[in-house]
Amino acid sequence: MEILDSMKAFFVRRMLLSRKVPKDCENPLEGWMAIKARETLRKSGYKLSAYDRTDTISRKDFEEYQLLRFREQMRYAEAEAPHYRNLYKDAGVRPEDIRTYEDLEKVPFTYSHELAENPYTFCGASATKLAREFTTTGTSGRRKTIGFTSGDLVSKVDIIASALSNIGMRKGDSLHIMFPTVSAWDPSLMMSAACKVLGYGSSTCSETDISVQMKVMKEAGSTHIIGLPSFIYRVTALMGKETDLTALGIKKIISTSEPLSESVRKALEDAWGCKVLDVWGMTEMGLACAVECDEQDGLHTDEANILFEVIDPETGKHVPAGQEGELVVSGLNSQGTVLLRYRTKDRVSMQDPPCRCGMSFNKKLNKPRGRMDMQSKVGMGYKVYPLLFDEVLFKENDVVEYQLKITKEDYKDVLTFEVETPAPGHELEERIISLVSSVKEISDGIAEDLIERPRVKFVDVGSMEYSAKAKKILDLRENYD
After folding, report:
1. DSSP string spanning 97-155?
2. How many helices (H) does the chain have, and how many strands (E)?
3. Interacting residues of 433 by C-beta distance below 8 A, sequence separation 6+
4. Which burial class, exposed, middle or buried, applies to 231 when counting CB atoms under 10 A from its CB (0-12, 13-18, 19+)?
């Protein structure tokens, strides 16, 4: 059932703030956020700084909006969500105590295992008011259920619509939604709904058969693609040798749900002849949370609906802009599942505005480097994660996919890379070994005689069955800490 089945498209269009953004606005995403913040602050009696346009706002005023909404969400959570009912009382913190960004440190964190164990204690609306429930296991494998009211869904469609406009989609364009094996996956539904209310075309294909993907794309007249970078790369590596992909006229490719390495980005841009933009999102926060602009220098965040913090994962204290830490998010307008100071386990840093694209008040998320729960330690405790190896391995055009298996022989770690390729051979093997050995964490471990020379095992194309969010690193050691 489509998301819009329970909501008339005409009614939804009237509710969308994105339709209020002036046609001459150069950055519709930031314009949408400014309009939302200004309307909220005006209703609260706050005196806004003088501006001659409704689609802009000062950073100072915008931060006042965020803190206002955070306080209101705390009150809502205390009143409606059982998990929070006594949490803040026990912590000795009240909504009125949160007046500055630093004050957020007084508020207890929310953890993913708590949400997985008792999802309905985070719900601020009764079951009869929930329009839809989405589920996610993320990378942890623990199933989490997230509830959305109709108002939540409209808000998410609104931000997705603004983001699609911001990357340049216009009437006459069509978005191909490429999420293999998950045709009814939540992002597909939300994105097709956003396209529908804006009058854009869309097509969704869940087939892992890349020839079927190409057929659907051509029949739909797709001008934009969104999907998992690992699968789009697979399509590119296997079809690019026999098809001129630039002839399809794709204007932008949007990479989402997995880390995007720069080597994969370059390979896709060279093959398709268009920019590849990264997206960061999570089901817990309504899927679409941050998107790159054409500058490709950080992801513009949905700060109208989400308050972003970066903390030291050990101390829980804020870190300065530009310093890497763990991302913590708070939903500012959620009616269904309420999450405040939710620890994501994502390794990120943030950039202060402005951006060269013209956005003036919106903070950017530097490209996430991976999740802390996807790390493995090798050698002298060096942390490795998939993006490290994506960056070097996908420089080889003949590498379609890989999986790293970590074992131990005596006191040394053994890294065996199973590589899917149409061109196995000794020369490719040596190049792969050289590439992965150039990763500092690996070269240091080899020099310290704690990691064996990397090994390569070739497998036939198609023998590694594709699955969304597959584990790139399998740690098979019994004890490695």
Report:
1. G--STGGGGGSPPB-HHHHHH-GGGGBSS-GGGEEEEEEE-TTTT--EEEEEEHHHHHH
2. 14, 20
3. 453, 454, 455, 456
4. buried
How are beta strands 174-178 and 224-227 bridged, if at all? parallel
Q: Which of 154, 178, 332 is nearest to 257 (CA)?
A: 178
Q: Comparing C-alpha atoms, which of 85, 122, 90, 124 is closest to residue 106?
A: 90
Token look-up 């909220």 returns 40
pLDDT value for 141: 53
Distances (CA, A) of 395 to 389, 399, 436: 10, 8, 11
Q: Are 442 and 453 in contact (CB under 8 A)?
A: no
Bridge partners (DSSP) of residue 255 are 227, 278
pLDDT tens per residue across span 206-233: 888 889 999 999 999 999 999 989 899 9
290-292 sheet: strands from edge to edge = 201-205, 174-178, 224-227, 252-255, 275-280, 290-292, 299-301, 364-365, 350-351
> Hey, what amino acid is at 61?
D
* Cis before 354? omega within 30: yes
Q: What is the DSSP letter of 96?
A: G
Distance CA 36, CA 155 (A): 11
Contact 344, 369 (CB under 8 A): no
Mean pLDDT by 10 residues, the chain (481 residues): 50 68 89 94 91 87 97 97 92 96 97 93 90 70 82 87 91 92 62 85 90 93 94 90 91 92 94 96 84 96 96 96 95 96 94 95 88 80 89 93 94 95 96 96 95 96 73 82 51
Q: Which domains does the chain have, with CATH numbers?
A: 3-365 (3.40.50.12780), 375-475 (3.30.300.30)
Distances (CA, A) of 412 to 197, 380, 381: 57, 10, 12
Give the span between the Cα atoms of 192 and 461, in whole angstroms. Answer: 32
- Of the candidates 394, 200, 168, 397, the one whose C-alpha atom is nearest the C-alpha of residue 274 is 168
pLDDT at site 184: 46
CA distance linking residue 440 with residue 397, whole number of Å = 22
